[in-house]
């Protein structure tokens, strides 16, 4: 897992835990002091925020657990997967595009950072150079031919020569 994602999630968890343990109890106490709870908007808003913070903390902790289970040795060395940079030819747009397959926390379509859980990401995962992915996006169906592939292992300097062999076979 990328360390900056871990730090980002841990930072949000820490901030929310502080809010839940210190700020919200004080806010609820102040609101209770105002009197009748049935018509006390401050009290109800603080209680709603408390529920939201608890739910968000649960989501973040679950996501941290999921991300900690990512085993880099299980990421393919010869096919697109998490961390891969994929150069594709988009026949629908008649354009060559570069995508990097990332976690949902890192996704930024404008920068070519595509989540592995997005329609394009799911379509590209498992593809090799020369494969064509048919992807259904909100803007319609797209045909993406994989022209070049650099896996996370190759970027880390431990790659095989699958990309070169696949390129030479064309």
Describe the protein's architecture and organization.
The chain is of the alpha+beta class. It has two domains: about 5-70, Helix Hairpins; about 75-170, Chitinase A, domain 3. It is about 45% helix and about 20% strand. The protein is built from five helices and five strands; from the N terminus they run H-H-E-E-E-H-E-E-H-H. The protein has helices at about 5-35, 40-70, 120-125, 150-155, 160-170; strands spanning about 85-90, 95-100, 115, 130-135, 140-150. A five-stranded mixed sheet has the order 3-2-1-5-4. Helix 1 (about 5-35) runs antiparallel to helix 2. The longest helix has about 30 residues, at about 5-35. It is elongated.
Characterize the quaternary organization of these chains: single chain
Query: Any low-confidence stretches, pLDDT <50, length ≥5?
Result: 159-170
Helix content: 40-55%
Query: Tally the helices: what do you get?
Result: 5
Number of DSSP-assigned strands: 5
Distance between the termini: 34 Å
**CATH superfamily label of the largest domain:** Transcription elongation factor, GreA/GreB, C-terminal domain
User: What's the order of the H and E elements?
Assistant: HHEEEHEEHH
Please tell me what the overall shape is.
elongated
Under CATH at level 1, the class of the largest domain stands as Alpha Beta
Q: State the domain count.
A: 2
Task: Quote the beta fraction.
Answer: 15-25%
| Helix-strand makeup class | alpha+beta
Give the overall average pLDDT.
Answer: 82
Strand order of the largest sheet: 3-2-1-5-4
Which CATH architecture of the largest domain?
A: Roll
- Using the CA coordinates, give the radius of gyration: 23 Å
Q: Sheet with the most strands? A: 5 strands, mixed
The fold-level CATH name of the largest domain is Chitinase A, domain 3
